[in-house]
Structures are given as structure tokens and as C-alpha cells.
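Margin note from the TA: students keep mixing up input and output lines. Inputs are the sequences; the output is the structure of the whole complex. Example:
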Amino acid sequence: MDIELRGISKRFGPVQANQDINLDIRAGEVLGLLGENGAGKSTLMNILSGLYSADSGEILIDGMPAVFTGPGDSIASGIGMVHQHFMLVPVFSVVENVILGVEPTSGVDYLDLEAARAQVQEINTRYGMEVPTDALIEDLPVGIQQRVEILKVLFRSADVLILDEPTAVLTPQEVEEFFAIVRALRDAGKGIVFITHKLHEILEIADRVSVLRQGQVVGQGDPASFSEADLAEMMVGRPVSFSVGRAEATPGDTVLELAGVSLFDAAQDARLVDINLSVHGGEVVGIAGVQGNGQTELVEAITGLSPATAGKIGFAGQDITRTSVRQRHRMGIAHIPEDRHKSGMVGNFTVAENMVLNSYYDDSVTTGVQIDWRRVHARAAEACLSYDVRTPSVFLGAGSLSGGNQQKMVIARELERDVKLIVASQPTRGVDVGSIEYIHQQLIACRDRGNAVLIISSELDEILDLSDRIYVMFEGRIAAEFDNRGGGADRNAIGLAMAGVNQGINRDETRDETRGSAA
Amino acid sequence: MTNPALLQDGTPRLTDWRAMISGAVLIGLALVVTFFLDTPWDSVSTFRISRPRDVWAVGNLTVPSQWFNVIASVLLAFLGTRLFLKGGGRWTALALGIGLLVLVLSFLVWATAGKAISLTGMLQATVVRAVPIALAALGGILCERVGVINIAIEGMLLAGAFAGAMFGSLMGGWAGIICAMITGGVFGLLLAALVITYRVDQIIAGVVINLFVLGLTSYVSSQVFAEYRWLNKASPFRSFKIPVLGDIPLVGPVLFNQNLFVYGALILVTLSTYYLFHTRHGLRARAVGEHPRAADTLGIDVIKTRYAHVIVAGMVAGFGGAWFTLGSVGRFDENMTFGRGFIGLAAMIFGRWHPLGALAAALIFGFADSLQQKLSILNTPIPSEFLSMAPYIATIVVVAGLVGQARPPAAIGKPYVKE
């Protein structure tokens, strides 16, 4: 089945999400759709999957115009969407998720799970997906959950699969397995749209590429004819430098030290197990790992949001295991939270108000019991300038800023004061490329001023670019430790550690090494 | 990361506070049984099973009171000590449940020491009193399984009771039941419109409906019914015996010699279990309650599904409400549901959002209710005010302590907004 998009435009209020887009999707071919966050990729695909309707333009399926009034129409005509955020019911089994909406029945509405299981198993083996059909979704790793999503669209006999940022949640090894499945699907004659902002993936898997910027197609063609730099320039609209230029680290005294830290959640499941790590002044330490392997809990333990159940946390020579969040904060720990919308800012507050969330009680902005708003506004305006927060005014609601500017606002607030340790969790998630560059530079600048920087990111590239030392977390433990001075860490070995293979081997070596050098 | 292997290598394990507290409670109960439920050694508690005109007569059950309680307190002390010292893990809840059951039994034995009560009658009352709770819980389940919190169950029960009495008086019992269900359904529709279409906070909408129904029915019953008594004088449904089954000792009178509402509740519980877990639409309904966006992307109409279930839940609650009037006295009184709807919601949680679980929970609450009724007849030294608190204390104990990790449907309380 071939699909043609002709002159698709879509506008949300003042934002022109898609403008006059033409795109061909052909059977037996992988079309790479490249673009930054907010370039309009998701809007375009939601139009194709029937969630939105286009303001103008038309969709031709095998040359015939098609009109979608809802997801049902799109599914019926053979288009299957695999969403970036999985659309799976966690407490349902794989089979139940796959058949939901098109359940085989017998008798009076009786759910024929036997028949369903057989059909799902058949697709499962045909494309070599190896998904356990009766497991509950919540018990499966994300890599397998993604295959369930693919099973879902195949079960609806989709001929065109739209994969929205499919590799964002996978380890490098899982990405390889995933690509094998994508190739198997392509060879079986399916048309595939592969949406991503990762250039090397496009070069590896796509047969054709289209680049989207600000809602428009700015380039398309054979990926072999482009270099990564070309694609990046098309995507961003200006030349981009890939690696952050960073000088050799000069580690100083230990700033943060965790010794045997464990953390149990309310259900008494172990979230962190015997964590030993240290961060020195003047170095960037990266925590790599697939999301949900204890990184969030690690950050909470360090910042004091959830007190450690066991073990000791030392900060600048003091024991802070039982210290309150505010105390730690005042001692010089800056925290850039992983989800700025949830815990980094208040969307309905103005930029200025957001800027004093961590210091409203401080003498510098209060007179007696009263906040001195003039000082707050002046300080916010200053911080906006020095941290490149692009907002017309500090009186504007923070929610109306772009993701990158929101993040820079959070960073400005945290770094503006005197800090010794920066805990940056997913510092560039949902941020445009320009802001990513800027944020990375700021973090490196912090290091060069002699501060300790701890970066937690599920983007391995980010970890490799910034870190001098890397810990890999797996199932709540430090699975391995790598030296990355001069970018020497083995990407493959890190990937294996992220997947839980070879636990501990590297760690023992490097641990002795760092001990030796510290002594 | 619930992998227990994580814990098997010298990692510090948390103190099992739940087990320790439960253990301490059980030891305390053992002391209570030993010192407060003390009876003379020669007294005997008699539980009658058969009644004079039964086809198959069975002898009475007699228990030596003091011996029973000695054994009970030893058992409680053993369970408690074990929990306290060794921890219980996932057995904690079970041990606590057994402990409470033992306590209730020995209390019953103590209260009947030297006297006799009818066990059959008590269990019969248990089932009867469990009916409105079970139906309220079922209404709650149907709503919450699609992601709508239904605090308004209480109001729907009351509305059903009112409509049952009024229309039952005017047009007879069957019409009364049908009108009660329609009334419940109308309030279901109102709730659905408020929370699904207008996205009013679900708790607030529910409370508003409860207050509205309470005010309206109280007004009519005190102003209108007082004047026109024939409007509030329905003939209630009598119990009818199912042939043969109804003659089995103990089980017969308890399960097969009841009125329409008891049979109706049992049938509805069975039907909804089948519906929710074995049919296509049940699967879709549960998906809507767990992950509405996923359901929507698969072409399931979230809004329609929610409307349908909330309305049907209202009808079930309306039927349950009719029990108060058409199933017992035939007359409506102000606020006669008396919080049974809320107890029903507790039964829903205790039953883990499963119709059968909710029925079991409702039976426990019904038992507490009928225990209170029996004990006030037996003239025990405990004030009757305390006894009438029993069902509510049972609710607190059950909801707070025994439920453990019950997980509500994930999308509960959140209005669905299409992006």
C-alpha cells in the first residue's frame, strides 16, 4: 500500500504546526522522518492516524483520496501507529492488549481468548518478536512492550506502520534487535515511517529521508547522499557542533559520596541497593541506564526528597543522610528535576515567581515577612539575560515559554546561587537543539569553575559527551563504572551493562583504579 | 523492580512494621478474650440451626463457652507472637483476618453463654442486610471500572428507596422496582453529564447529588407523605422458598428462602462478573478505566462507554435502594439508607473492584450488622450505641488494615479530554 500526503496544513491557534507538506510512503520501504521536537512530526502523523484532521490538503491511499474522521478510519484503511508513549494497559496481558478493540468473540459477546492467543502467536513468530503472550504488560521491559505495540498494529493487518520515536526508550542492544524487526517488516512488504531526531538512526535504517523544520519539509532524498552534518543543519537551520568542547577534567576534593545507600519504597520493594559512588569537584559524573532502573530514586536520595533507608550520604565533608531538603539545598546542592512540569516549575506562575521558588524565604528578597517584588523582578530579569531565557517579560506565565526556555529558566534558578554540586536529571529532555547546546555548555562551565556535576540521562550520547566518569545503573544497583576522560569509554560495554549483562566486571577494575588515584 | 532476588545478598531488609503492628494487635486481642470475655466454666452457648417446622431437622450446636475462649485466646496469642517476632510478609493480612474472625466468634460465644440464639436466623439476616451493600458496591464497581468515582451511590440508593416506595404504593411492587431503577438511572445520567461532559470534580459532583437527593426526599416525605399517607404505603415483596433447595438445613433458609432482592443481587453479581471479565465489552470497559487514551486510539468510544456504565450503575443502585422500602418495610423514611452506599464503596475497595470480592465484603458488613441486632436482643453488658458502631468500625478496620495493596483502576477520577 502506498500513501501520498498532498499539501497538508494544520494550524493550532497561532502555531502553524504543518504547512503544505508533501510526503510519499511506499510499500517495502522505510521512510525516515527527521525533525526536532516541535517541528511538526507528531502533528503530521496524528493527521495520518486520524486523531487530527488537516485544515487543508489531502491523503491519497493507492491513488484514491481518503477521509479520516477518527482513528477507526485510519486503522481500517491499514495504517498503524506505534506511539512514542505506549498505549498499553499495564494490568492487561499481552493478548488482551493486542486484541483490544477488535476482539474475536463467540457466542454472546464471549471473549474468545484461545483464538486470539493463537493468532497473536502466529504474528509473533512470523516476525521473530518473541513476546510472551500471557505476561502482564507491567511485568515486561519497555523493549518488549514496544513489540506489543507493533503486534497490535499488525493484528489489525496494518500495511503502513508509523513508528514515533521508537528508540527513545531502548538500550543500544535493544535498538539493534528492534532494527532487525523493522527490516523483517519492510521485507514483508510493509511501508514504514520512522520518526526520530537521532541522525545516525536515519542513516542506518532509512531508505529515504524527509526533514521537517517548523512545520515544513526542508529536504528529502536518499540518506546515503547526506552526511550527519548535512542532516543536522537541515533540521536545525544552522550549522551545529556535535560535541561539546571540553577540556581535561581536574578533579578536586570529593564533594558527594554515597556509601552503601539503599532505598525502599512504600511497598517495601528495593529501589536502590547498596549504591557506592562519589563525585569530585571539577568533574562531571554521568549516570547511564534505561529509564526506571533507580535513577529517579537516586536523585531523590541525594537531594533528600526520599531519605535513604540505609547507608550514608556525605556532602563536602558532612554527613547529610538525615538532613532536610531545604538544608541540603542551602548547603549548595542544586537540583534540576527530571520532569520540569511536575517538579521543576509552576506553569501558572510568572517567570519571576518561578525564579524565586527556591529562595523566596531568603533575606535577599524579603523585607520582614514581606517579599520585595521589585527585587525579585529585577533579579529575575538579570538571570534571564545571563542564562539566555528568551521571554518577552518576566511577568509572563512560565507555561507559555518553549520547552527549551522553561528548562533554561529552571537552570538559571538553580545555578544562580552559590552551589557546589549540580544534580541534573534529564537536563535536555524535550528541549530544542539550540538550547541543548547551551545547557551542555553551562554544565561544563560549572565543572570548570570547580563544581561537582552529576548528570542523569537516559540518552547515552548525552552521557558520553559530557561525563568524565560514568556509572551505569541496572535494577537499582550500580552495574558498572567507566572512565571517560577524553571520551574513552566503550559504548558497547556501557550498552551491555545497561541491559544487565556483565554486571560488576568493569566496576571492580575501575573502582580499584580510582581508589588508587585518590590515595 | 519487585524482584525478590534483589534482597538476597545481605542488603538491609526493612523492619516489617505492618506485621509487627498486626502481631501486637493480635496479642492485645488475646488479652481481651482472656480477661473480658470470661465466663463460668460450666456455661454452654447454644446455637439453634433448625426451626420447629423444618422438613429435615438438625440438632442444635452447643459450645462450652469458656473452653472455646481459652482455645481462641491461645490461637490469637500464637498468631500474634509469630507475626511480631518473625514477620508475616504477605501472610500478615490473612493472619490478621483469621484473628479478627476468631475474635468475633469468641465474642458471639461469650454473649450467648448460658443462652441460645438462632444461627440460621442470624445468617439469614446477614444475607438480607448484605444486599443493599452488595448492590451499592456493584454500582460503584461498574463506575470505577470505567474510571468514574461514584460517591453519589448513597444518593442513588436513597432515590431508589424513595421512588420504590412512592411508585410501589401507586402502581404495585413491580412498577415500583422499575421506577426505582429508572430514578437511579436518571441520577446516573446526571452524574455522567456533570463529570464526563462538564468535567466537574467527581467527588464534588457526587456529594452534590447526595445532598440534593437527601434534601428532596426529606422534603417530600415530611411534607407530602405525612399528608397523603397512601402515597407511602407499598406492599413489600415477601420471601419465597425455592423448592427442595430451600429445605436444606442451614443453607436452605439462608440462601433459598429469601425475597426478590436477594436473588436479584446474587444474579447481578454473577452477571457482572461474567460481563467484566469474560466478554468483549467488559474488556473494553476495563480498558477505558485503566488507560482511556489507549482505548480511544483503538477506536473505543471512551465517552459513550463511561456514560453507559454510570447510567447502568445508577440503575443497579436504584434497585438496591428499592430494597429499603419494597424489600422490607414498604415505607420511606427520611435518610433511611443511612450511609449504606458509603459502606458499599468500602466493600468495593475491600473486594478489590471485583463483584465477587465485593459480595464477600458486603456479607462481612452484613454479618456485623446482624450481629449487632442479635446482641441487642441478648442483652449484653455492652451499650447498644457501641454495637451500632460495629459495622462502621468493621469498615475502618477492613479498609485501613486488611486491604493491603488493592489497586484501583488507573484512570479513576480523571476526566477524559481528547487532545
